[in-house]
């Protein structure tokens, strides 16, 4: 009988452990429900643990947007007025994100024209990356989930907001990521050529700074 209960306990323990291999929610950002304003800034950030950073010559025209109609219009970031390329990141005040293994990034967005929204990362060593995977145009809001392990990365020139060259997985360490964000590598073209982001979620293990 004791052997039976011990074996049962081991099976339960193994099952519980096996369910925890996927990382939990590292952060979510859903902009505050406040009136539209240019440019988006720290006061629009709903998550007190996050620091907002803007990059590129087009950053001053990024808009925290919202419309009274349709009735379910979200409070979102809009790039349509940007006169040059731009990028947005979020940095956790107390932790790095471990994006190795089963990490995921999910967001709700809507692009127009030829704009494709891509993930960008700032590594702990200071290098910047931009993803080969992207979220393309859609006529309505759409949720997109990225498996980080499936992404191929390019080095990113954060001043010009341009990709420079591909980098292999063995040359980068995704276990300590300092900033996580997005860009479409383009200037805006008002409503017909732009990117929109409603919210973003990052599923990753937390590494204390």
Strand and helix map with partners:
Blueprint: H1 2-18, E1 25-30, E2 50-55, E3 63-65, E4 76-78, E5 87-92, E6 95-98, E7 104-109, E8 117-123, E9 128-135, E10 142-147, E11 153-157, E12 162-167, E13 177-183, E14 196-203, E15 205-208
Antiparallel strand pairs: 1-14, 2-5, 3-4, 4-14, 5-13, 6-15, 7-10, 7-14, 8-9, 8-13, 9-11, 11-12
Q: How would you describe this structure in keywords?
A:
single chain, 209 residues, mainly beta, Jelly Rolls, seven-stranded antiparallel β-sheet, six-stranded antiparallel β-sheet, 1 helix, 15 strands
Short description:
This protein is mainly β. The chain is built from one helix and 15 strands; from the N terminus they run H-E-E-E-E-E-E-E-E-E-E-E-E-E-E-E.
Give a verbal description of the structure.
It is a single chain. The chain has 209 residues and is mainly beta. The protein has a single domain, classed as Galactose-binding lectin (Jelly Rolls, Sandwich), CATH 2.60.120. It is built from 1 helix and 15 strands; from the N terminus they run H-E-E-E-E-E-E-E-E-E-E-E-E-E-E-E.
CATH C-level class: Mainly Beta
Beta strands, count: 15
Q: Quick one: overall form?
A: globular
- Give the percentage of residues in beta strands: 35-45%
Portion in helices: under 10%
Number of helical segments? Answer: 1
| Mean residue pLDDT | 93
* Low-pLDDT runs: none
Write the CATH homologous superfamily: Galactose-binding lectin
CATH topology (fold) name: Jelly Rolls
Question: What structural class results from the helix and strand content?
Answer: mainly beta
Radius of gyration: 19 Å
Strand order of the largest sheet: 2-5-13-8-9-11-12
Question: How many structural domains are formed by the residues?
Answer: 1
Q: What is the distance, rounded to the nearest whole angstrom, between the alpha carbons of the first and last residues?
A: 48 Å
Largest sheet properties: 7 strands, antiparallel
Order of helices and strands: HEEEEEEEEEEEEEEE
